[in-house]
Structures are given as structure tokens and as C-alpha cells.
Amino acid sequence: MSIDVITDVSDLAPNAAGDTSEIVALVDPGALSLDELVVQAVHGPLLADGSFDESSMVTETMHHGDGGTYRGTITPSGAGPWGVTVRAIPTHPGLSSIYDTGLVAAG
């Protein structure tokens, strides 16, 4: 499985609090079908070392379009450097949580 984030996340203004941005990702599910994936945009403020401030991260579910294209929106809630990544998580209706597999691909 692979993920290409099509949106240039460097275009997100560092002081974009309240500004909504569209995130587009192309997901290749590999041996899985697209119906077996939950695709999410994870975003939040960045610390000085470039990592996410995990206490303030937000997860938005992205919606499947044509082929493996997924779209979603993010709205930074604070000023300063803001990061975004996309992740795909394999899932099945029989699981109690999407996180039960312990597997994730990030892009």
C-alpha cells in the first residue's frame, strides 16, 4: 500500500488559523480493496523540531472519490507552524475499532 499526498502542504500558511484547506491524496491499496481502508488526514501544530504536538493533533476522515483519490479538509485551530499527513488504515466490519489491526501506511 502506498500514499501520495497531492496537495502541496508547504502551501499551508504558517498563520492560517481558521482557514480551511483541501487535502487530496492518491492511495494505492496494494492487495487490499479501497473499501477495506479508512483514510485520514492528521494535522496539528508543529514543535520546534518539526514533529507534531501530539496533545493538539486532530484527525479528519477523508472521502473516497474516483479511483484511489481521497479528499478532505483541514482547518488549523491555532497560529504558527501547522503540519499535515495522510494515513491509510486497513479495516474490516468485524473489528471493534479501526485500530485493531495495528497497521497503518502514512504519506
How would you describe this protein?
With 107 residues, the protein is mainly beta. The chain is built from no helices and eight strands. It has strands spanning 2-5, 21-28, 37-45, 58-61, 63-64, 69-74, 82-90, 105-106. The strands form two sheets. The chain has a four-stranded antiparallel beta sheet with strand order 1-2-6-5, with no helix packed on it. Strands 4-3-7-8 form a four-stranded antiparallel beta sheet, with no helix packed on it. A hairpin with a 4-residue loop joins strand 5 and strand 6. The protein is globular, with a radius of gyration of 14 Å. The mean pLDDT is 84.
Quick summary:
The chain is built from no helices and eight strands.
Shape descriptor? globular
Low-confidence blocks of residues: none
Number of helical regions: 0
Classify the beta-strand content into a percent band.
Answer: 35-45%
Order of helices and strands: EEEEEEEE
Task: Classify the secondary structure makeup into a structural class.
Answer: mainly beta
- Mean pLDDT across every amino acid position: 84
The total strand number stands at 8
Radius of gyration: 14 Å
Oligomer: single chain
Identify the strand order in the major beta sheet. 1-2-6-5
Largest sheet: 4 strands, antiparallel
Portion of residues in helices? under 10%
Distance between the termini: 10 Å
